[in-house]
Amino acid sequence: MLDNPIARIDGLRVEFQTKDGPVVGVEDVSFEIAPGETLCIVGESGSGKSVSSLSLMRLVEFGGGKISAGRLIFDRKDGGEVDLAKTEQGLMRQIRGNEIGMIFQEPMTALNPVFTVGRQLTEGLRVHKNMSRSEAEARALELLREVRIPEPEQRLKQYPHELSGGMRQRVVIAMAMACAPRLLIADEPTTALDVTIQAEILALMDRLKRETGTAVMFITHDMAVVAQMADRVVVMYRGNKVEEGTVEQIFENPQHEYTKSLLAAVPKLGEMRGKSAPEPMKLLGVEGQNLAPIPGTNERLLTVKGLTTRFAVKGGFFRRTLANVHAVEDLSFTLNKGQTLSLVGESGCGKSTAGRSILRLVEPNAGEIDLDGVDIMKLEPRDLRKARIDMQMIFQDPFASLNPQMQLLDQVAEPMRNYGIATGSEIQDRVATLFDRVHLPRSFMRRFPHEMSGGQRQRIAIARALALNPKLIIADEAVSALDVSVQAQVLNLMMELQAELGLSYLFISHDMAVVERVSHYVGVMYLGRIVEMGSRARVFENPQHPYTQALMKAVPIADPHRRKSEKDLNFKPIPSPIHSLDYVPEPSLYNEVEPGHLVLTTDSGY
Q: How many structural domains does the chain have?
């Protein structure tokens, strides 16, 4: 037991009422948190970790939940201990935001789109601290400086949609810290962010905690983030706590099978050293694993030369084109049959646009795309439709890419019907085979997308991409929204299919550890250009471009003894990709530092 904990949860049970009767979100959970400590709560989606934190804020009731048992003891600065489970909403309003702050997972939905950043930041200060308008604005400026937002005076006048994801998340952190709460609850605050921004925000939260003595309850499913942040760890599984200990105990000597499998499923940067070809991960408790490396072939499948895609910025009365967004600039690479080329970089570097341009879902301005001898750029719409049999895409969000009103059987069969490849009972047999391929029970064929978990939905998206036996699959952040253990299973599945069917992947991601695990070749993108390109071993073991080195440095490592400090992370702000109409970019020129390892010599802006 801790001396004088700030918060103590005792035997918490939360139920949700549904049409089919009550569903238990949290069954029986107890833990406590001390002043100045970071407690990480880990588990996959549905384990009850967010429900526990929403119960502490008494927000779970607004989402249809009910605290049916347990005590939530909170030590107020002046008011002594209170049981939050029994507190009336009037007092909860004083505690919320003032004594317990919360950082939500999705900053865009946590901010109000119709009020300026300044108005939202000063609101809490004026309600809880009785500050005048000018005092609150001065404090808001101070807070934005603390969270390292550039040009804070301008930011106060802006609206949330005018800020990038990382900036919005910093504003949400500033709002949560505004009244100097005793306890800060952070619910997956970095899941949707790039490695570099994530690294900065984790370092920032750590510094704010040390300076203010706030206790932090950090909820995440990313074990590398836990190693970076935690003092103590609580592991949750299906609504129960299965293990608790210091961060060193959990990482070095896990006791529970579930904790062991969570740690096994984390791809670690550097674990592929000395291996020439990617190989699937060994997962605990999964039978029949084929872990042979996937060498691929030397036969060329895709050649891209000088690919350039720009988007017009229109404005004024006649909607004239005023400038261009240079999304992809002079991109060239090749991909062999049966191999994986990964494009890696931060949000906005042009990697998704590059993938869509190759499929001509976005029309490129210039360049050549050759897929197995077919010049994709010269095809008329009818021929392009035919060529698309050979190239398919797996999108980032499987829920958005599936039709909510169609059964899964029809969704996977749709490409075959569209192209007249199979008919009648033959379609059903082929769909059943595809379900076997992606390790889903055939009984799921009659289900709808909302009845599936995220990982299962992503498997359906893979099955649908495979329906036409394509040669090339472009996977756009296909695993970034998934839990660690599910992510590992989906990656293994993709690699298994590659070994079996000789598929080629263009794998688009911002997760360096995942890229190292699956790639034969890697291209690092920055501001629309590839700044470094080569085999996986060369790029990861001998990074030459300063941007690649900065990316590597930012990746959190799942080892509590190798934490990053804030001084390790000196990222330059990304310049704007918008240029005037008369701007002529330089061509991309490369220096070959070792055979097949190219580094950009043109000024990339980094």
A: 1
